[in-house]
Specification:
Blueprint lengths: L1 H10 L4 H4 L6 E2 L6 E8 L6 E9 L13 E5 L10 H7 L7 E2 L2 E2 L3 E3 L9 E8 L4 E8 L11 E8 L2 E8 L2 E7 L2 E6 L7 H7 L15 E2 L11 E5 L15 H6 L14 E9 L3 E12 L3 E12 L4 E13 L5 E7 L6 E5 L2 E10 L11 E12 L6 E5 L5 E5 L7 E10 L8 H16 L3 E4 L3 E2 L1
Antiparallel strand pairs: 1-5, 2-9, 2-27, 2-28, 3-8, 4-6, 4-9, 7-8, 10-11, 11-12, 12-13, 13-14, 15-20, 16-17, 17-18, 18-19, 19-26, 20-25, 21-22, 22-23, 23-26, 24-25
């Protein structure tokens, strides 16, 4: 520990007198000697809430760190008082102690590529329009501070097959049909997907156990559901899309199924949890052996869910992209609401909403449906990928974007959801406004800059 601290101190360049000009954070007996000042800037003319802040290892002056050596502090927040004896009895020695000069914020140190070395420090903050705020990352071993989970991700055996779940306290996603997302909404902020897969409870029926858990709010069937990747392989047919679930082998071997055919003969998938964190969780999907009949493709897709939001983001990278003709481009889409009465589209944003019946899609028990006056879905593609909107009439109607991937054959998009029985954004007007703001924020991530380490 002393050798590591000595190495960090060797990087410090500021004088001790300069460091003492700004009050240093303490927490109980934790009195760090080294910190890194980071500024976070909102470049937009609107206030932002629960804004993602990402500090990449390549941009941080001390890359060789254990995650327990990182404490992120907002000096503008009120310090926590000393915990009560009852609280200490419950939480033990790792409970947060009395703070001075700021408050430790929930954060994560995430290893995204799974090589055992951290890739990003992540936290969230609120920012006023045009605001630039200072945070401090204190370096030194600190094992105190429990983090309540507001997100959850896992792979569960659900009705006889493995599938991924990812959620925050407002909304969640899961994948029943290979790579097309289901969506579930909550009535009150809660995490509940662990009940779905651990107890194997129907997504429509779980509300009979606790109404706050909500319900599935997205029927998928043959559609894009609440989000799916695709390919545009026929420039002469702009309203057609190729999808990994429906291939020549599928129609040859299982033409009436909504699933793919055999895992050796047709497209296959694997699912992994990259991290399951308190404020950010990530699921990784690999799509392999996708022979569309006009090309051969494989991809890796990461879905990330964030605390206190109504969205998740997706990054898709094609690891194999071998079209057999010119002009092939990837894309993504969501299903059009079946009784769509609200449609917004401009640039890389599309919103679809309307009243919808909630019922078991297979109608296996004649459970009476009920009509929800509003269910909304939205899809946003970053402008850097030059999104081109296309409506796909087949497979229940779908709103899609053709995209131009980057030099790594990757692209990113965001999917959003809400419903009338949820705790917020539960009308088409409020959801439209939310989708518009998230689209702006998604295209304008905050600016983050970190200084060199300073010594106390």
């Amino acid at each position: 520990m002393k050798r590591l601290l000595t190495g960090i101190l060797a990087l410090c360049t500021c004088a001790a007198g300069e460091a003492r000009d700004k009050a240093w954070y303490t927490q109980g007996s934790f009195a760090p000697q080294v910190r890194v000042e980071c500024t976070v800037e909102n470049t937009l003319d609107i206030d932002r809430e629960n804004c993602p802040v990402i500090i990449r290892r390549a941009d941080f002056p001390v890359p060789d760190l254990h995650e327990m050596w990182v404490t992120v502090v907002d000096p503008a927040l009120p310090p926590a008082p000393a915990p009560t004896p009852e609280r200490l009895t419950l939480q033990g020695g790792h409970e947060l102690r009395r703070e001075t000069n700021g408050h430790a914020v929930y954060h994560q140190v995430d290893d995204i590529d799974k090589d055992g070395i951290w890739d990003e420090i992540f936290f969230q903050t609120d920012l006023k329009a045009g605001e630039k705020r200072t945070f401090y990352i204190y370096l030194g071993e600190n094992s105190r501070g429990w983090n309540k989970h507001y997100t959850h991700a896992n792979i569960g055996s659900y009705c006889r097959h493995l599938m991924p779940f990812w959620e925050n306290e407002y909304v969640g996603w899961k994948i029943w049909f290979a790579n097309s997302c289901d969506v579930f909404g909550k009535r009150k902020p809660t995490l509940m997907s662990q009940h779905l897969y651990m107890e194997n409870i129907d997504g429509y029926g779980i509300q009979t156990i606790d109404p706050d858990y909500g319900s599935d709010i997205q029927r998928v069937a043959n559609s894009f559901g609440g989000g799916s990747v695709c390919l545009f392989e026929f420039p002469e047919r702009p309203d057609s899309a190729s999808r990994p679930r429906f291939t020549p082998k599928h129609f040859e071997l299982a033409p009436k199924s909504k699933w793919n055919a055999g895992q050796m003969s047709d497209t296959r998938y694997t699912y992994d949890v990259v991290f399951n964190g308190p404020i950010r969780s990530m699921i990784r999907i690999k799509g392999m052996n996708w022979d569309s009949g006009n090309g051969f493709y494989e991809y890796v897709q990461d879905y990330t869910i964030y605390a206190h939001t109504n969205y998740c983001t997706s990054r898709v990278r094609f690891t194999t992209f071998e079209p057999r003709k010119q002009g092939v481009a990837p894309g993504c889409g969501v299903r059009q609401k079946p009784e769509q009465d609200n449609f917004v589209q401009h640039g890389g944003l599309v919103v679809t909403s309307g009243p919808e019946y909630i019922s078991d899609p297979e109608n296996i028990d004649n459970r009476p449906p009920w009509k929800v006056p509003f269910i909304g879905m939205a899809l946003a593609v970053r402008e850097q990928y030059r999104p081109e909107y296309r409506y796909i009439r087949t497979n229940d109607g779908n709103h899609t974007f053709r995209v131009t991937p980057d030099a790594h054959n990757a692209y990113e998009y965001m999917v959003m959801a809400s419903w009338a029985e949820g705790p917020r954004y539960n009308t088409k007007e409020t959801f439209n406004a939310y989708a518009e703001q998230m689209y702006r924020e998604y295209n304008n991530p905050v600016r983050v800059a970190c200084a060199k380490p300073e010594q106390k």
